[in-house]
Amino acid sequence: MPQYEFRGTSRTGEQVSGTRVAPSREALDALLRRDQITPTRIVEKGREIAIPRPKVVGRVSAKELAIFTRQFSVMIDAGLPLVQCLEILATQQENKAFAKVLAGVRSLVESGSTLANALRQYPKIFDDLYTNMVEAGETGGILDTILQRLSGYIEKAVKLKRAVISALIYPVAVLAIAGGVIFLLLWKVVPIFGTLFAGLGVKLPLPTRIVMALSEGVGTFALPLIVLMGAGGYGLTWYYGTPNGRMIIDRITLNIPILGALLRKIAVARFTRTLGTLITSGVAMLEAMEITARTSGNAVVEKAILEVRKAIEGGRTIVDPLRETGVFPNMVVKMIGVGEQTGALDAMLQKIADFYEDEVDAAVGDLLTLMEPLMILFLGVVVGGVVISMYLPLFELVGKLAG
User: Fold this and answer.
1) What is the pLDDT of residue 22?
2) Superfamily (CATH H level) for 62-155
3) Contact at 8 Å (CB) between 190 and 198?
4) Do residues 65 and 154 lie in contact, with contact meaning Cβ atoms separated by under 8 Å?
5) C or N: which end of the chain has fewer Cβ atoms within 10 Å?
6) Does 1.20.81.30 match the CATH number of domain 162-403?
7) Is the pLDDT of residue 145 over 70?
8) What is the spatial distance between Cα 158 and Cα 193, in angstroms, rounded to a whole number?
């Protein structure tokens, strides 16, 4: 019979490994399930076997996850059994994909898996931060409290994400509309004026000649331009997907005037909120730093956090490595230092996060207030400039006729 080497987690969350002899892979699954082991790696005679993860068709939003987590915490606090909580929440869930996931989690828990290990089977919905906090809550017997913290964390993360979207969507939308209007004018409207001017035989001023030349270029290369812009967008997306490209683009965005300062505040708020939540929940410092780095959302910040983690692993305190990265403001570093010295690092991180989230709200409001007149001015100058340049020859012609 085939011999299998396996690694996995027990019902208590401990890492286990060993060797089993079984007639088939299905028989091995039955043996491991009987021993309440959830496999993470299986090798048969030197050939690694991929462990299939349940497929989820659909999307689960952060808001839905936050509502589920808060309801889950209330039900656990009320004393309902874990399996019953999951069953009730699955049947009440309007999102069919999420309902299927919760039913799968309930099935795994019912067969002997821990809640954290069951959630790990759906990494696209329950990330490392979520599962590690749940594991800490299970181990410490404070699952309801941990779930409450998780729901609060997710809600604040959604708020931060909205702040980023609010800061970016207005200028992007205005620039896109302006680009579309200018393209349409050059492509369809300006050629009509060109035909009119050719019939009148008037001498065109410089602004009009420039606009006419642009119009001819758009008319000749309209399709290639559209293809080029699409290819450019795809290429930029692909480049950002590479480690080097993500690092370069994230570094550039952090150094953009005004917007860079806002993104830096958002990064600090996310870092302190995530790390503070994990430490408060009982996750070990090194593991919490690694999870925080992966969920930072910025390659520059992620690299800085991993450098700090490496320094802490070497026996240093958190303050000096944070300062050496040059990513975090001095005030943040000093406050973290005070929290570390007083033994209240988790509470200090939460206070910093609260402060910077308020700063982000204020900065987004100020940015939108500043951008509104600038965008209106930009539209007026660009679109108005094209229109006026088309009427300049007519003004000159009318002046000559009047004279």
Assistant:
1) 82
2) Type II secretion system (T2SS), domain F (1.20.81.30)
3) no
4) yes
5) C
6) yes
7) yes
8) 50
**Strand 47-49's sheet: what is its strand order?**
15-21, 3-9, 38-44, 47-49
Q: Do the beta carbons of residue 167 and residue 364 sit within 8 Å?
A: yes
Hey, which residues does 232 pair with through a beta bridge?
none
pLDDT for residue 348: 92
Q: In this predicted structure, which of 35-49, 89-103, 115-129 has the lowest mean pLDDT?
A: 35-49
Could you tell me which of 61, 60, 41, 43 has the C-alpha nearest to residue 51? 41
Instruction: Indicate the length of the chain as a whole number.
Output: 403
Question: SS3 breakdown of the chain: % helix, strand, coil, rounded to 5?
Answer: 75, 5, 20
* Separation CA 115–CA 135 (nearest Å): 8
DSSP secondary structure string, 142-160? -HHHHHHHHHHHHHHHHHH
| Per-residue pLDDT, 400 | 67
Say which DSSP state 95 is in: -
**CA 196 – CA 387 distance, rounded (Å):** 15
Cite the beta strand spans of 66-152 per DSSP E.
none
Phi and psi at residue 19, in whole multiples of 5°?
Answer: -130, 135
In angstroms, the CA 250 to CA 374 distance is 25
d(CA 376, CA 378): 5
